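Practice problem 4.
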């Protein structure tokens, strides 16, 4: 595919890097010459110095032949304008990053009279096929993790009937055992093992080590039973401390309030503390510094069930989460911008890391796939991707098994959904038109995987 990325900040650079890894043709547009030089030094992409919200620059980028344009500048309004212009100039699909959640919905125009119908203006009417809000994605992920049985991140496929769960290896009975010797209580596939920041595509002989993170493909109803074998189930969360009253922190607090969970928000800025206190109904908001151990003790942080750090500083988030763990908080979650900090944070004791970059890239991923792909998520950081395909009658895999169709050896078949039947593991099951198939593959092998579903 030919893809244009407008904006080369942290998000834009990461997306462009992921697309290059997937062997797509990429052009990056960025108004700062200094930033463009940084892109050129890291990626083999075409670059244009200029404002992507102008038709001249978009034409220079050959927007008329673009399969996708991703607008990720620092301005919501600019991103929306870029998408509108790109669609008018012939781009096939557009994605806009927005931070203001009010932009994400639809708009109602004023009616001519009280009885007249009002026109609904949806995002696609403005030239935007998909709005992505990293802050919303991160907040939703944090809320889902805190409210889940085993406190794990989950990816949903086949309308939620099949999931991929990330579990930390904690149960002694499976530590130092090979996968083939572990009796799981339900059919499943081990899609990946992450150890010390390195992602391993597992075989039956691989041995699990303590604190490995493993990714399990299974039916939704089986996840809790599987989790009990691998990790230590956590008691239900009833109280959470959120450090950082920015967009993510506020969204997390609002979401937890709705779940009936007691929330305390710690914010360093007095003015911001007053703003969010006015927006939250039940949460307690205090102004203070979460790096101050005495202050945290005074606020009763040690008695909380979980500590969530959501400031703009990755380093501060990690530091405060570790301090909370030291005070006795059983669960710590940090929101991170830099993916490079994920293995470091987990290695030194942070329980769960949630990356806005990975979540954003995951939302975009299925837009750049072919072969009937309808959803995609990253697995084990950003080295593997789980993709759900719908098999067409013209696909080379139709009426054949995945092995017969030539599925790459480094790719793993997670599940087949045939009518109402879920087949895990797929083994040598024949695949029929209309079936949904979930494949986990390294990014470099995805073009080969796509071929068998075309």
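Answer key:
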């Amino acid at each position: 595919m030919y893809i244009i990325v407008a904006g080369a900040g942290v998000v834009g650079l990461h997306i462009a890097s992921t697309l290059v890894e997937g062997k797509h043709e990429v052009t990056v547009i960025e108004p700062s010459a200094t930033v463009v030089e940084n892109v050129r030094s890291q990626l083999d992409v075409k670059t244009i110095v200029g404002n992507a919200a102008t038709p001249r620059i978009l034409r220079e980028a050959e927007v008329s032949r673009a399969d996708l344009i991703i607008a990720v500048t620092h301005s919501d309004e600019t991103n929306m304008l870029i998408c509108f212009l790109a669609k008018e100039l012939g781009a096939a699909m557009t994605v806009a990053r927005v931070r203001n959640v009010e932009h994400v919905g639809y708009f109602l125009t004023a009616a001519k009279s009280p009885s007249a119908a009002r026109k609904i203006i949806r995002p696609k009417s403005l030239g935007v096929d998909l709005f992505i809000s990293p802050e919303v994605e991160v907040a939703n992920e944090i809320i889902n993790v805190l409210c889940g049985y085993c406190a794990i991140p989950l990816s949903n496929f086949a309308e939620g009937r099949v999931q991929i769960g990330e579990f930390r290896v904690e149960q002694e009975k499976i530590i130092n055992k090979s996968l083939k010797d572990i009796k799981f209580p339900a059919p499943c596939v081990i899609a990946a093992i992450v150890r010390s920041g390195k992602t391993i595509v597992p075989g039956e002989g691989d041995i699990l080590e303590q604190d490995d993170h493993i990714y399990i493909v299974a039916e939704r109803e089986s996840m809790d039973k599987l989790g009990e074998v691998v990790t230590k189930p956590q008691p239900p969360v009833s109280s959470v401390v959120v450090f950082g009253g920015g967009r993510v922190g506020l969204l997390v607090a609002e979401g937890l309030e709705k779940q009936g969970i007691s929330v305390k928000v710690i914010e360093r800025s007095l003015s911001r503390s007053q703003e969010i206190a006015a927006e939250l109904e039940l949460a307690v908001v205090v102004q203070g510094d979460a790096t101050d151990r005495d202050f945290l003790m005074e606020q009763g942080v040690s008695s909380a069930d979980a500590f969530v750090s959501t400031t703009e500083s990755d380093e501060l988030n990690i530091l405060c989460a570790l301090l909370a763990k030291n005070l006795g908080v059983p669960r710590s979650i940090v929101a991170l911008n830099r993916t490079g900090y994920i293995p470091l944070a987990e290695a030194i004791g942070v329980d769960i890391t949630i990356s806005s970059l990975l979540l954003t890239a995951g939302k975009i991923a299925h837009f750049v796939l072919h072969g009937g792909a309808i959803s995609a998520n990253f697995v084990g950081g950003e080295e593997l991707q789980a993709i759900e395909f719908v098999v067409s009658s013209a696909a080379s895999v139709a009426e054949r098994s995945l092995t017969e169709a030539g599925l790459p050896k480094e790719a793993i078949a997670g599940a087949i959904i045939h009518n109402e039947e879920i087949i895990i593991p797929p083994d040598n099951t024949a695949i029929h038109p209309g079936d949904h198939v979930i494949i986990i593959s390294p990014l470099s092998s995805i073009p080969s995987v796509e071929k068998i579903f075309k």
